[in-house]
Amino acid sequence: MARNNLTFRVACNRLLDDLAQQEPGATLGSEITLGTRVGASRTTIRAVLTHLAEAGVVRWEGRAKTLLRRPVAADYFGSRQTESPAERLERGFMSLILNGLLPPGSALNESWLARRFEVPVATVRTFLVRFEPFGLIEKQPNRSWLLKGFTRDFAAEMFEMRDLIEMRAIRAVLDAPQGGAIHRALHDMERRHLDLVARPEAIEDAFPALDAAFHRFVCGAADNRFFDDFARRISIIVHYHYQWNKQDEAARNRAALSEHLVVIRAALDGDRAAAERAFAEHLRTARRNLMASVIWE
């Protein structure tokens, strides 16, 4: 199986996450067992094992499979290498929003988006349809869509649901074992935040994307497809920032960056109560800021 195959790369990263929970010298299961754990076929697992054996992560001799060493960051395929067409479209669409390229009333053409992000038109249509029930986007003739805003009531309902989902998700982060995939991602999230703290001039432009990544990480830790889908939609909705009053944006971003770090450090220190309190306060602050800063129609 070619290593440029998306299924192969995703399965490889998932198996690496699984192996990271085990001690070197551990005996691995059969291909069927491993495939069940990472959601891949036996053929794909055999290709992944061959790759990991070549990388010195495992020893595979006949039916015997042994973990030689714990995976390191260099063993993983990067996020761009494991994203699906839908994820590539979402990332590109978010980039348009974060760079202010979609002002109020923008008309979006399905074919144009498909060409720009090199995805099928059907992928574009499926992506846009997700926002139609919220009244944030309206179907127009000739495969076009009109971007619209949202109301105070919509924002209040959105944050109520966000509180329910993300408070449940942060507990999954805190429940994760030391040294596992979530814990490693938490360290990486801390590094990314500290990098931005060291570059205050970049906060205004770079923080929105980091904020979206932080909340996506939290929701993803719950391993619940509905949580993850909610996080994807909320990232785009919240950062549909042309409606925001930009006057205090820099101060808001610096404060939110600091709040993220308080949560991350408490989680890394194993202080569950402090992490939950800090995250709940961060959600309350985010709600107050949005309600005060949006220029309502």
TrEMBL record:
Any Pfam family matching the protein: FCD
Name of the protein: DNA-binding transcriptional regulator, GntR family
Coiled coil: none
Ranges where the GntR C-terminal domain occurs: 157-285
Organism of provenance: Tranquillimonas rosea
Residue stretches spanning the membrane: none
PANTHER family given in the database record: HTH-TYPE TRANSCRIPTIONAL REGULATOR LGOR-RELATED, TRANSCRIPTIONAL REGULATOR, GNTR FAMILY
Superkingdom field: Bacteria
Keywords noted in UniProt: DNA-binding, Transcription, Transcription regulation
Any one GO molecular-function label of the UniProt entry: DNA binding
InterPro entries (UniProt xref): GntR_C, TF_FadR/GntR_C, WH-like_DNA-bd_sf, WH_DNA-bd_sf
